[in-house]
Write a structure and sequence with these properties.
Layout (H helix, E strand, L loop, with lengths): L5 H13 L8 H11 L5 E3 L7 E6 L2 E11 L26 H17 L5 E9 L8 H7 L8 E12 L2 E4 L2 E4 L1 E10 L3 E2 L9 H19 L6 E9 L6 E2 L2 E10 L2 H22 L2 E10 L2 E3 L1 H11 L9 E4 L9 H7 L2 E9 L19 H18 L3
Parallel strand pairs: 3-4, 3-5, 5-16, 6-15
Antiparallel strand pairs: 1-2, 2-4, 6-16, 7-14, 8-12, 8-13, 9-11, 10-12
């Protein structure tokens, strides 16, 4: 059934690619997806913040409930691929593969719907908005309570690091969590000739930049992984004027909740120390955007077992991946529901240079759409014991 609808998957992907919409603004994309399910024997639920939806397929036999998720938002990037179906919305691009995620899942869901009488349970299809922008769409969907009856959840991501036909996975902690902070330091402005009459915010901020680097080098266990980055330091002014305030913004990455808590605590401690050391006033906004993504080991082992059935057919390899330092709001689902998030290779053919996700020249091998659909379909069949 999936093979017969490969062209349809590609058509859907190209339509979505041509009309991308940013996180929390995906009105037309959401309507396009809803129209696909109109008149079909499913229940479509909306109603929380954002344009996401849950499409429920109730099987013909009683049993457990699983969920499959795909995201559909795009990025604020000007596309440079030159594709005939390139973005028609200036400054917006599907540069992360979410168009492909949505296309494969729409067709897979429709095929599962046609087989519903043989399914011993319920399948919830999550078409999720706003993965790219914190707090993310997953958080509000989890908080809606509409997934409280789900026993296991599965999702995939397209990555061009390997060719179509390859699948990779990571058991346990698989992707990093991410926090954001903004620090505003208030000192006392003055003239460069009279520093004793001022209180230099730039000097205090510079000490903070140096001090936070010691969190990873001197506070974190060497066998753990963490990153603290100062991405913005707004201290521009006149060469002979002492600034009265400076604003910094930073990004924090971590692989475990324990590391998350440690870095959070240390950043706050250092800010307090800078206040005391320089006599300045500091405003700290610290937000945990996405938690680390944790794949249930037992469920992941079962997923690998199911996927291995496809080797020699639609798959060439199923292999274990390294931990990824990128973050994913699918982690919110996995905090509440055990499951597995794995990766589908989509490296474009006939090219010497591969552009990673979020690059303005990012593209996929559209063969990966069928691979994704078959792989997730294999997991569904394996879970329910269907041939």
């Amino acid at each position: 059934m999936l093979e017969a609808r490969k062209a349809e998957m590609i058509e859907i992907r190209r339509h979505l690619h041509a009309y991308p919409e940013l996180s929390f603004h995906e009105k037309e994309t959401s309507q396009y997806i809803a129209n696909f399910y109109q008149g079909k024997d499913v229940e479509v639920q909306k109603g929380w913040k954002g344009y996401g939806m849950i499409v429920t397929i109730r099987g013909g036999k009683p049993g457990k409930t699983i969920a499959l998720r795909a995201d559909f938002d795009a990025l604020p990037i000007t596309e440079q691929t030159g594709l005939p179906f390139a973005s028609k919305n200036p400054g917006v691009m599907h540069a992360c593969g979410h168009d492909g995620h949505t296309a494969y899942l729409m067709v897979l869901a429709d095929c599962l719907l046609q087989l519903k009488k043989d399914i011993p349970g319920t399948i919830k299809i999550i078409h999720q908005h706003a993965e790219e922008t914190p707090p993310g769409g997953a958080k509000s969907i989890v908080e809606s309570g509409l997934l409280d009856d789900v026993d296991q959840i599965f999702g995939i991501h397209l990555f061009p690091t390997s060719p179509a036909g390859t699948v990779s996975y990571r058991s346990g902690y698989a992707m990093a969590g991410r926090s954001y902070f903004k620090l505003i330091i208030h000192g006392k402005g003055g003239h460069g000739s009279s520093p004793h009459l001022a209180n230099d915010a730039i000097v205090a901020a510079s000490y903070f930049v140096t001090a936070v680097q010691t969190i990873v080098s001197r506070r974190l266990n060497p066998f753990e992984t963490g990153v603290v980055t100062i991405g913005s330091f707004d201290g521009k002014g006149s060469f002979n004027v002492i600034r009265d305030s400076v604003e910094l913004e930073g990004d924090v990455r971590y692989m475990t909740k324990e590391t998350q808590q440690l870095i959070d605590k240390e950043v706050h401690r250092i800010v307090k120390g800078i206040e005391g050391m320089f006599g300045i006033v500091a405003e700290l906004i610290y937000t945990a955007d996405y938690p680390p993504l944790y794949n249930d080991p037992e469920i992941t082992a079962n997923v690998v077992k199911y996927l291995n059935r496809g080797i020699g057919d639609y798959l060439t390899a199923v292999s274990e991946a390294d931990m990824l330092s990128g973050s994913e709001d699918f982690a919110y689902y996995l905090e509440k529901i055990p499951g597995c998030f794995f990766y589908i290779g989509c490296r474009p053919k006939h090219t010497n240079e591969v552009y990673f996700n979020h690059h303005p020249k990012f593209d996929i091998d559209e063969e990966s759409l069928l691979v994704a659909a078959k792989s997730v379909g294999e997991v569904v069949c394996g879970y329910y014991g269907l041939e």
